[in-house]
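B., you asked whether I could sanity-check this one before it goes into the benchmark set. Here's the sequence:
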Amino acid sequence: MLLDELVLDKDELTEFFVNDLPDCIGCFTCILRDEEKCPHRSITNPIITAIEQADVVIMDTPNYCMGMTGQLKTFFDHMAYRWFSHRPLKEMKHKTGIAISTTAGMGAGAATKQIEKQLFWWGIPKTYRLNATVLAASWNDVKPGIKEKITIKTKKLAIKIRKKHNHVRWGIRHKIVFKMMGGMQKAGFGNPKDEAYWKEQGWI
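And here's what the prediction gave me:
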């Protein structure tokens, strides 16, 4: 529903599913050596490249057991090297993030909050949370009144995103965390790969 409102004819949309993504094995290769040497890089690279080139990053998940799915968390695990504490991408600071989840009863808000936290640590300055309780197991069983409320909420969000496009910037929280991480790198509390990256970017 959001894509119908947000994506215009001139826009390019790329969609990925992470259901078959292998588990991150915690080898630290991406952090200590090189993200390109991740054993799963050939699978994750198209997704990561699309995110790096996108203006808007939409992450959606069903709500299972009061949170995001394990499959989506697996993808976020593969992105640990892009956190502020390691090698954040400067292009992230002008992107918009959207976290979406629905639930029959409870937990959609918790799921979108988990996604929002991940996008914050990537350096995305603004993430909108679109979550809804539908009181049903399928869209066909959702009551008309609930569908109408979700439709209105989605349309309003699309308008807000378009209005603020190209005008998103880091807020005070992002700036403070970035400065703190820079201080850690400058003091030598990081690893050589990360420290070299921060120096290459001219941040320390």
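One thing to flag: The beta strands are 56-62, 96-103, 126-133. Otherwise nothing jumped out at me.
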